[in-house]
Amino acid sequence: MSFTVYGAAGSGSVPIEAALTLMGRPYRVIEAPTWEGEAQRDKVAGANPMRQIPALVTPEGETITESAAILIWLTERFPDARLAPAPGDPRRGQFLRWMSFIPASIYSMYWIRDEPGRLVGDDAEAQAQITARTADRISHCWSVMESQLTPGRFLLGDDLTVLDLYVAVVSRWRPLRPRFHAVAPRMGEVVRRVDALPQLQDFWARRFPFRGVYADPA
Ligand SMILES: N[C@@H](CCC(=O)N[C@@H](CS)C(=O)NCC(=O)O)C(=O)O
Questions:
Q1: pLDDT for 49
Q2: Does 173 map to a domain?
Q3: Residues 116, 59 within the same domain
């Protein structure tokens, strides 16, 4: 039995799929772009009562939700892939810090951004304010992370971790990479390095192509 990922191209399942790819672990994807509406959310509801992707079903049949938890769990399940500093490693604290910061401070904004009406109903002006202010908040969070990290080749030093995969994907969402680079130039160099990893070129092309607004103009 292999892994099953409930996910969608360009979504929060992509760093998980990238990690499984680098780990050489077979998986299948149940495609469910939940932001498209209730029919897609229904597909996921059995695995995740929050009706969100990503969710991972392990070969043993356990279901894990929450992108950061899934990524960290995979690094523990497959330590030989060396995609996280191990417990006791001096980089572990910062690894856990930023792996928690992304879903808590940044990813959570998208529940509001994707459908501002969830909070303010049909008020178009209020919706526009939410879109603008959550973009400001996301940019601020990236700038805080930039100020606290001293990247090497990758965010925590010279070794690639799942944190790099996570940031490389989330930084491509709106307000999009040009704004990310403006507030986080050193992290920006890292994500471009992650975009260029030879072992992920086919994967990115399939799951989050560098096209249109999702390109990263130098
Ligand atoms: N806390 C969750 C957030 C997941 C999430 O927001 N997923 C989005 C897609 S990238 C989703 O399913 N949105 C639909 C909705 O919230 O209704 C995680 O970190 O996995």
A1: 98
A2: yes
A3: no
Residue 55 lies in a domain: yes
Count other Cβ atoms within 10 Å, centred on residue 16: 30
Q: State the distance from the centre of ligand 1 to the C-alpha of 23, rounded, in angstroms.
A: 24
Task: Give the residue numbers spanning the domain of 43.
Answer: 3-81
The atom number, within ligand 1, closest to the CA of 13 reads 10
Quick one: 177 and 109 in the same domain? yes
Expressed in angstroms and rounded, the spacing between residue 165 Cα and the centre of ligand 1 is 17
> Residue 130, exposed/middle/buried by CB under 10 A (0-12, 13-18, 19+)?
buried
Domain count of the fold of the chain: 2
Task: Give the model's pLDDT for residue 64.
Answer: 98
Can you give the C-alpha Rg of the chain in angstroms? 17
Same domain, yes or no: 109 and 184:
yes
pLDDT lower than 50: segments of the chain: none
Q: Let me know whether 102 and 50 are in one domain.
A: no
Identify which of 145, 186, 156 has the alpha carbon closest to the alpha carbon of residue 89: 156
Q: Using CA atoms, how far apart are residues 82 and 7, in angstroms rounded to an integer?
A: 24
CATH code of 171's domain: 1.20.1050.10
Per-residue HEC secondary structure of 156-196 comes to CECCCCHHHHHHHHHCCCCCHHHHHHHHCHHHHHHHHHHHC
* Interatomic CA distance for residues 8 and 40, integer angstroms: 10
Q: Choose the residue to mutate in 30, 38, 48, 52 for probing ligand 1, maximizing ligand atoms within 8 Å of C-beta.
A: 52
